[in-house]
Amino acid sequence: MTEKAGKVPEQTTSQAGRHRPGPERREAYRVFRRLGTRWMDNDAYGHANNAAYFSWFDTAVNAWLIEQGLLDVEAGQTIGLVVENHCNYFASVGFPQDIDVGLRVGHVGSSSVHYEIGIFALLAQTAAAQGHLVHVYVDRDTRRPVSLPPALRAATLALHAPASA
Amino acid sequence: MTEKAGKVPEQTTSQAGRHRPGPERREAYRVFRRLGTRWMDNDAYGHANNAAYFSWFDTAVNAWLIEQGLLDVEAGQTIGLVVENHCNYFASVGFPQDIDVGLRVGHVGSSSVHYEIGIFALLAQTAAAQGHLVHVYVDRDTRRPVSLPPALRAATLALHAPASA
Amino acid sequence: MTEKAGKVPEQTTSQAGRHRPGPERREAYRVFRRLGTRWMDNDAYGHANNAAYFSWFDTAVNAWLIEQGLLDVEAGQTIGLVVENHCNYFASVGFPQDIDVGLRVGHVGSSSVHYEIGIFALLAQTAAAQGHLVHVYVDRDTRRPVSLPPALRAATLALHAPASA
Amino acid sequence: MTEKAGKVPEQTTSQAGRHRPGPERREAYRVFRRLGTRWMDNDAYGHANNAAYFSWFDTAVNAWLIEQGLLDVEAGQTIGLVVENHCNYFASVGFPQDIDVGLRVGHVGSSSVHYEIGIFALLAQTAAAQGHLVHVYVDRDTRRPVSLPPALRAATLALHAPASA
Known about the structure:
The structure is a homotetramer.
Chain A: H1 8-16, E1 31-36, H2 50-67, E2 78-89, E3 98-108, E4 112-121, E5 129-139, H3 150-157
């Protein structure tokens, strides 16, 4: 229900015996976008609600696509639909903070792109949260997958992997 | 950015060479809660935005906890914080549909619970989307993990695994 | 930023020297719709945020229109756009409460309808909040006002004024 | 349900015989804050939903209060609760646009402040939407109105009226 977690993840990983990644550093991402938070993002526990993070993911990915000329929400024939998303929360952020959203591409398929996203407090070097979303690109009318348009393929491949990798 | 996917997942799984689960049936869940959708849930592509699904997850889990007497949002000393969540989208739902949210518990740790959630259209037997959220239960003031209160442990263990499993 | 107000309105009315209406009773509304609240509706002060109320207004009005066969969001040529809305808050509501949304029509213009809306806690006879929204009906493509379709005019006129008026 | 209105307001004013204000210019506001929009702000008609505007109102007012040192959401004893809000919509805005939110104070009561707000597209001189919200300042615990703290009174009076008035 909320994302405040402090040093919680380490404990829960060992308890659960499930792999949970630790927070990555800014160097792991290729491009950044600064977003504002909103009063309404915060929930009854005083920090941004988990659903707000996914609204930031969407906003960062789609704004990047639009700026690159790769997505025309109103008129483009190819649109990106989310078929999977995920987030791990390491520390809380919330209104009135601004945040930096880091973006890279983890996999480019024939009709899908796996975007990897980190949420950073402004002065933090490690992520407060990180996750991914998978877009499948489909025809607007049929909603059937299409081959990635060449410009989209090139631009997402160029965002592949961290700069340091 | 949205969750409309039709038969998309099958294709993307094979393309990406990554495991993506197929939709489960209602029998895989232990309790259900009917939720309404809202005009605002739908995005520019005409179906509920992915962030809306996570607001449904939160709502279903917390409402269940409150009804069981296991969570007192205003005054309880133990609160649940989301440290991870995930969703796979198989088919679109959206306003003005109602939805059924199926819930089960996949893992009960010493201070965490892994809730598994399916989103169903009212007449559908297979999930439109499914995912999970992991709560770590912490002290409200210190925000440090605490051992699951016995009543919470018992109630979540009772929701363990699908009825048919 | 939030809607919790207790008996606040009386004081503020006299202070401000501005007219602020008192809460109406259920009898003042013609039809009711029960809506669920969501975890995310509540803000840092523990009650539903004011923006959530407007999402309930939209949901109640559009769901009623769709049920009456008066609005086809995907394909209809006439759509309703909000040109004005307003809300006064008298008492707080919030997750996990359900709410009853009362609806009546205050004015039917040549291309507009003024919907009046009350938000009620389930056992309350007086409104926790009340307000209005004004729809102008426009052509989907040109976004220019159109004369109200006859069925819409008839249905909204039938919702005119409180039952007791 | 949405805010797209084009030149609609003029027509509806005359039809309804009700006063509806025309859009104001930037000069009518005292301070401005630039906000980003989000993918999720846009609804099925492709522009920001009306409820999103109220989340911008809240964000602008509360961010200003926090920056002025007048509101401490976590620990302050005096908090501001919305008892009334209102918006008129003149033209649509939406993701991926940024917006400028203009703010001034229209009335300062003994325990309340009437904030007046304009929403502007970045290059526009006239408002896309304008409205107000009324805060009553209350004691966090009793939720009873309190006299405006002197610093809050001074700061809001300094924002009184448009610069040109």
